[in-house]
Amino acid sequence: TTTTTTTTTTTNNNNNNKKKIKTGKIVGIVNEKRRSYIATVGAEENEFIGLGDKVIVIPMDLKIPKIRVSCRDVEEWKEKRLEVIIDEWNKEDQYPRGHVKGVIG
Questions:
Q1: Rounded to whole angstroms, how far apart are CA atoms 64 and 73?
Q2: Of the candidates 97, 57, 51, the residue with the CA atom closest to the CA atom of residue 77
């Protein structure tokens, strides 16, 4: 469920008829349903990024952005499929933050 604010804008067209257009913006999410994604560890991504205990995983669905997750041992996850959930995405972060729910294989 999302919370929105709604405003009405009046525009003129060529026939001098006024047309109302509803506009709005999402100001927050009240109840969110988190979805899990299948992802793999991007080897070349993590060799050059000094993330410390964080790694970048690449979702199998190309419409989903890369996700940053915490990890103790990257070698444990290499060449495996991970079930990942996005937790948050701050506007100053390049990638969303998430966590690994499980290793699929």
A1: 24
A2: 57
Q: According to DSSP H, which parts of the chain are helical?
A: 43-48, 74-77
Amino acid present at 101? K
- Give the 3-state secondary structure of residue 45: helix
pTM (predicted TM-score): 0.63
Query: Residue 89 burial (CB < 10 Å; 0-12/13-18/19+)?
Result: middle
φ/ψ of residue 5, rounded to 5: -110, 140
Mean pLDDT within 30-50:
71
| Alpha-carbon span 84 to 63, nearest angstrom | 15
Q: What is the SS3 assignment for 90?
A: coil
Q: Which pLDDT score is estimated for 14?
A: 59
Give 65's DSSP letter.
P
Alpha-carbon distance of 56 to 40, in angstroms, equals: 9
